[in-house]
């Protein structure tokens, strides 16, 4: 055997079992002694790192499933001293793509290959077949693709595994995948609150989302949202949604996606709104609690069709923003990202598997789909604003759509403001000529 897995958390254990069942049982190890107590048929748990490496034939392939950041860096430092030229390290965690690129560059000097592997699907996907996004040099790709394909999810018999370029390309695609995921989760959550605004109970809202999770909006996130809204707490019997705290956690990929988009100059307002909402939810000390009678905010005039339209448009706009970011990053980094390859890989196993992926490779198709549902989106956002119900993903998506369709943007005034206080210059929209306003001496 030449495959090892380091990290025996939920993802590591389930991937190990997946590879074992596929005929490639790995040897495993974890830095934490308690985790090494794991025992399962057909998988060897090593007592230390040296034992792990010595158990492998060459070229050794060591897959990391540990927390991103410093834990990965410390382990890479140890591995580079015990591995040999030609061996391969695969970081299969949610690593920041620039860290992956830097590790690949440093280890190349020692002849050790470093690959970044985005893995989507959670624990269930890891066990039964995840979606995998690979970034590595081409010569390493030929070694890793056959191995990874046996554990990847399958769609029509084809593995949901794709190569997107060298360095951090695979982790970048996974990061964008997660950013889109944030936005779609937020949009679904907003549709629940809008359904509640019409007088629906949680279970009724879940039933409505279940109906919507057919056809154009079919997808895993819709299915599980319908399920959890219809689930009661087994102890109190109350709807689970009514007793759970609203502080939503995050592991960093959404924030990285927004930061990367800002760096590349790509607008991703729906993703940014979703990240911001999670941040707001985690600061209860900032809450201003009023005496608003929630029963008075119910608005039976809000049509369910409008809420459906708002959700449909918001989902499409989140995908359009992610596609735009992938395109720009591909050009900037000279990767091999193809917009048709990303949805193919996400089609099965991925948290983002959904019917709208059919439109992902053409951003204009997504924008046209959103425009088809724009009237309902506009109505839903207006009613939510009047009722004091926050719908930031829907509202920011609407502004994004309106901005791209506007004949003139308010930023024309921003350009004049910048020239007035900073002499940044202006551009004539008809001639392309650069000039300053009359308030500058040079223009007089």
Briefly say what this structure is.
The protein is α/β, with parallel strands linked by helices and 444 residues long. Helix content is 51%, strand content 9%. Helix 8 (202-212) packs antiparallel against helix 9 and helix 13 (304-333) crosses helix 16 (374-387).
Please provide a written account of the structure.
With about 450 residues, the chain is an alpha/beta fold. Helices cover about 50% and strands about 10% of the residues. About 45% of the residues are buried.
Instruction: Assess the beta-strand content as a share of residues.
Output: 5-15%
Distance between the termini: 78 Å
Mean pLDDT: 93
Structural class: alpha/beta
Largest sheet: 8 strands, mixed
Radius of gyration: 25 Å
How many beta strands in the DSSP annotation? Answer: 12
Spans of at least 5 consecutive residues whose pLDDT stays below 50 are none
Q: Strands of the biggest beta sheet: in what spatial order?
A: 3-2-1-4-5-6-7-10
| SS field, number of helical segments | 18
Helix content: 40-55%
Shape: globular
Give the SSE order as H and E letters.
EHEEHEHEHEHEHEEEHHHHHHHHHHHHEE
Supply the key terms.
alpha/beta; eight-stranded mixed sheet; globular
Task: Please give the structural blueprint.
Elements: E1 3-6, H1 10-21, E2 27-29, E3 44-45, H2 49-54, E4 61-64, H3 70-82, E5 88-91, H4 97-108, E6 113-120, H5 122-128, E7 131-135, H6 138-149, E8 154-155, E9 158-159, E10 161-163, H7 169-197, H8 202-212, H9 220-229, H10 240-243, H11 253-264, H12 269-281, H13 304-333, H14 341-346, H15 363-372, H16 374-387, H17 392-405, H18 411-422, E11 426-427, E12 434-435
Parallel strand pairs: 1-2, 1-4, 2-3, 4-5, 5-6, 7-10
Antiparallel strand pairs: 6-7, 8-9, 11-12
Helix pairs in contact: 1-5, 7-11, 7-12, 7-13, 8-9, 11-12, 12-17, 13-15, 13-16, 13-17
């Amino acid at each position: 055997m030449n495959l090892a897995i380091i990290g025996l958390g939920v993802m590591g254990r389930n991937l190990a079992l997946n590879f074992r069942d596929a005929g490639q049982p790995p040897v495993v190890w974890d830095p934490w002694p308690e985790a090494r107590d794991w025992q399962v048929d057909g998988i060897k748990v090593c007592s230390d790192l040296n034992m792990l490496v010595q158990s492998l034939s060459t070229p050794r392939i060591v897959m990391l499933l540990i927390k991103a950041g410093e834990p990965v860096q410390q382990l890479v430092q140890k591995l580079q001293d015990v591995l040999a030229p030609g061996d391969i390290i695969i970081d299969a965690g949610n690593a920041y793509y620039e860290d992956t690129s830097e590790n690949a560059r440093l280890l190349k000097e020692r002849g050790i290959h470093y690959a970044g592997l985005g893995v989507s699907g959670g624990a269930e996907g890891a066990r039964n077949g995840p979606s995998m996004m690979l970034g590595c040099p081409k010569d390493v790709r030929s070694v890793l693709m056959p191995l990874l394909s046996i554990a990847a999810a399958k769609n029509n018999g084809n593995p949901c595994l794709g190569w997107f370029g060298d360095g951090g390309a695979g982790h970048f695609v996974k990061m964008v995948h997660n950013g889109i995921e944030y936005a779609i989760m937020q949009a679904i959550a907003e549709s629940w609150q809008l359904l509640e605004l019409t007088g629906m109970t949680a279970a009724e809202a879940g039933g409505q989302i279940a109906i919507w999770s057919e056809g154009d909006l079919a997808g895993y996130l819709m299915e599980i949202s319908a399920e959890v809204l219809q689930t009661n707490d087994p102890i109190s019997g109350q709807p689970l949604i009514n007793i759970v705290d609203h502080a939503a956690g995050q592991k960093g990929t959404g924030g990285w996606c927004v930061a990367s988009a800002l760096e590349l100059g790509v607008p991703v307002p729906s993703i940014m709104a979703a990240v911001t909402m999670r941040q707001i939810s985690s600061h209860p000390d900032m809450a201003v609690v009023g005496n608003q009678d929630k029963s008075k905010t119910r608005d039976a005039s809000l049509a369910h069709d409008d809420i459906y339209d708002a959700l449909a448009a918001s989902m499409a706009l989140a995908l359009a923003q992610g596609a735009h970011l992938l395109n720009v990053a591909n050009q900037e980094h000279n990767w091999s990202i193809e917009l048709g390859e990303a949805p193919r890989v996400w089609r099965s196993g991925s948290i983002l598997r959904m019917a709208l992926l059919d439109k992902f490779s053409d951003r204009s198709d997504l924008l046209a789909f959103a425009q088809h549902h724009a009237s309902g989106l506009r109505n839903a956002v207006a009613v939510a604003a009047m009722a004091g119900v926050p719908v930031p993903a829907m509202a920011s998506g609407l502004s994004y759509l309106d901005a791209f369709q506007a004949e003139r943007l308010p930023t024309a005034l921003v350009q004049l403001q910048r020239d007035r206080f900073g002499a940044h210059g202006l551009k004539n929209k008809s001639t392309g000529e650069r000039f300053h306003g009359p308030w500058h001496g040079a223009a007089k």
